[in-house]
Amino acid sequence: MDAARPRVLSGMQPTADSFHLGNLLGALRHWVALQDDHDAFYCVVDLHAITVPHDPATLRRRTRVAAAQYLAAGIDPDRSTLFVQSHVPQHTELGWILQCLTGMGEAGRMTQYKDKAQKGGGDAASVGLFAYPILQAADILIYHADRVPVGEDQRQHLELTRDLAQRFNARFGETFTVPEPHIVRTTGKILDLQEPTAKMSKSSPSGVIDLLEDPASIAKKIRRAVTDTDATVRADAENKPGVTNLLTIHSALSGRSVAELEEAYAGKGYGDFKADVADVVVGALAPLQERYRRWIEDPEALDTILAAGAERARSVAAATMVDVRDRVGFLAAKG
Ligand code: ATP
Ligand code: LTN
Fold it and tell me: Does residue 202 have an active-site annotation?
């Protein structure tokens, strides 16, 4: 963790009993790769998870479930700072200050907020849900992150983060690094298997493949994935979104290019292709699932790693806040 390397930060919400293939291919896999040449900070964003109604015991369990999946996917706590967002209270403090720099209209334009508020039924949406992307900006800016690896759906939140960093810097002097999104075009949006125009998401159980799902269930979902009547295994995002999505998934996990796969499946039907996609997915997830089991069965070890990560994260966040408080004009407490 030397200071000369660019810094990267990302997080995911502990809002399900498993992450899914979209989370892995759109984000988590890139987190793992970035550890090699970045000073990496990865957190479980439990403060974000309470922006919608939640159950306390479930949140606590899922926070460990999320951290165990980070580790199982290859996040290495010796090289990266792995922590739980609520263990670093400075995120909330900076979040408040940034809220005071954000316009109501600006926050109201966030499409994720509009979607989620609508699903929750209008007035059921909390002020916290409205402020969600501003807290996300605080997560990023407090560590002076240079890059943020996320899926395509997070692009708008990163634009807001950049705007807030620039606004703060213009108003109070150079303080924050303006971060760049790290969004990988090919896997930035993995599609739902049943509805291959929408992104794969935890809210659609039949079209999502969970990282912790059992092999038989994964194979069944891939067999039933929506395709088309053209019956040629060929990438064409516009006219063949289902097949193209399966090609993207196969390619990302097998390391074979889409062109190579198209050639290999020339003249073959969707049945053979889907069976192979299922084998590739199951084969790729098996070692992750095995490592996950080992971590989740040792909560003591997991909590020790999270405590060390939180301590390191707090030391960075606390230093940023000393500067921020001064620049904003808060009177320093005596002593
Ligand atoms: P929700 O159902 O609440 O929208 P989600 O299942 O889409 O949640 P998030 O927790 O919002 O998942 O996302 C965590 C990370 O995974 C983010 O970086 C996000 O961009 C990425 N991600 C989520 N879904 C996909 C997808 N289908 N393809 C690529 N990346 C994705
Ligand atoms: N909104 C993000 C989760 C998130 C995040 C962050 C991502 C919260 N804070 C900071 C990157 C950096 C999502 O994935 N849905």
Answer: yes
